[in-house]
Amino acid sequence: MPSASLRLAVVGAGAAGLAAARELRREGHAPVVFERAAAVGGPGSTRPRRRRTDPLGAAATHSSLYASLRTNLPREVMGFLDFPFVASAATSSADPRRFPGHEEVLRYLEAFARRFDLLSLIRFETEVLRIRREPGVGWAVASKKLGEKGSGEEEVYDAVVVCNGHYTEPRVATIPGVDAWPGKQMHSHNYREPEPFLDQIVIIIGASASAVDISRDIASVAKEVHIADRSAPASTNQKQPGYNLWLHSMLQIDRTQEDGSVVFRDGSSVKADVIMHCTGYLYDFPFLGDDSTITVDDNRVDPLYKHVFPAEVAPQLSFIGLPWKFEYDDWLAEQCSYPPIEEWRKLMYAASTKNKAARPESYRDEWDDDHLVVEASEDFKKYL
Ligand SMILES: Cc1cc2nc3c(=O)[nH]c(=O)nc-3n(C[C@H](O)[C@H](O)[C@H](O)COP(=O)(O)OP(=O)(O)OC[C@H]3O[C@@H](n4cnc5c(N)ncnc54)[C@H](O)[C@@H]3O)c2cc1C
């Protein structure tokens, strides 16, 4: 039985916010979803960025997506349980590739929002500025429409669901001497296309998906690309066969110098034009105060019961989308009387990860798990 309708606020209309809004609606509520972008979709949508903490000071209003970006997981894995991410009219597909471009992901999220009639719940171009607890009353949420002046409009809600994502506040590496280094530093968040790096020497810090994609993108035009990878063995200092790419251990970056050199621990150095930090993002909840009862330390949000509820203020405040592990998702699904994540999905995730390691250049177009695609397609028939 649905409970009596409550005044609920959801912060963010990315994948997590849309799913939360749909579930709250199923429980008989009509949440207000605040989204500072003009459209649904998290990193894929264009939105005004908060300038507060961009440590490299890049001035822009945009998301973190680069032009060549395709998903790093197959579409079958990424879809919502009962709204498969298949190339079909229902998902407004225009890019049927198994690892599609980011615009296809946006179209899919928009289709999800339309299918479950969520758009009318969303206040677009409206940023949540502050959330304050009013004991005995609820949570005062201050929000401001894009372009409006003043400190925002405040409304009181019974509960707030935080779905603001984790890809806004860049994390950058600490490099001794970098303040006096004359080159340009940027974060992958601000990378768009390779052309500006023509004939330049670029140091890329990191080894995750963005570092892999961007290093190869840039290597097509740059003079040299050096990847400083924290996980590479300490002695690594190798040219990659067939490419203008060198791999170094991040532990080997000793310092940067005023003459433009980046000096490695083994004494070698490279005079570089650009240091690109592909070093991920920081969890950030700038609109929450101490009364939320949580703190964030090195992307650990504490104290949260099962990564969702701050015990002191539960269930009136909750966080969606913090953990990553399948085991956790299965536990959570069980609590909510949903089935666990399908076996094919777990196997496909593992197969894709393996394939990506084996074929970093071509994993988006060549794979060995067609049998799992067949299994997924069979499963999807329940929902199509
Ligand atoms: C470059 C890049 C590539 C990626 N590629 C893949 C991929 O291939 N496969 C994959 O599975 N995942 C990928 N991801 C991760 C994927 O985007 C996230 O897992 C997903 O977006 C998380 O959804 P979310 O709803 O938690 O957060 P988000 O999608 O980030 O949504 C959060 C929303 O909250 C809004 N918001 C934030 N603060 C406020 C505020 N104060 N007021 C109002 N609105 C606010 C934001 O505008 C945003 O729309 C990628 C991420 C990045 C950055």
UniProtKB/TrEMBL annotation:
A Pfam family hit: FMO-like
Keywords assigned: FAD, Flavoprotein, Monooxygenase, NADP, Oxidoreductase
Region described as Disordered: 38-57
Ranges in coiled-coil conformation: none
Superkingdom classification of source: Eukaryota
Cofactor(s) named in the record: FAD
Enzyme class per UniProt: oxidoreductase
InterPro entries: FAD/NAD-bd_sf (IPR036188), Flavin_mOase (IPR000960), Flavin_mOase-like (IPR020946), FMO-like (IPR050346)
GO molecular function: flavin adenine dinucleotide binding; N,N-dimethylaniline monooxygenase activity; NADP binding
EC number in record: 1.-.-.-
Similarity section: Belongs to the FMO family.
PANTHER family the record matches: DIMETHYLANILINE MONOOXYGENASE
Name under which the protein is recorded: Flavin-containing monooxygenase
Species this protein is from: Eleusine coracana subsp. coracana
Gene: gb07399
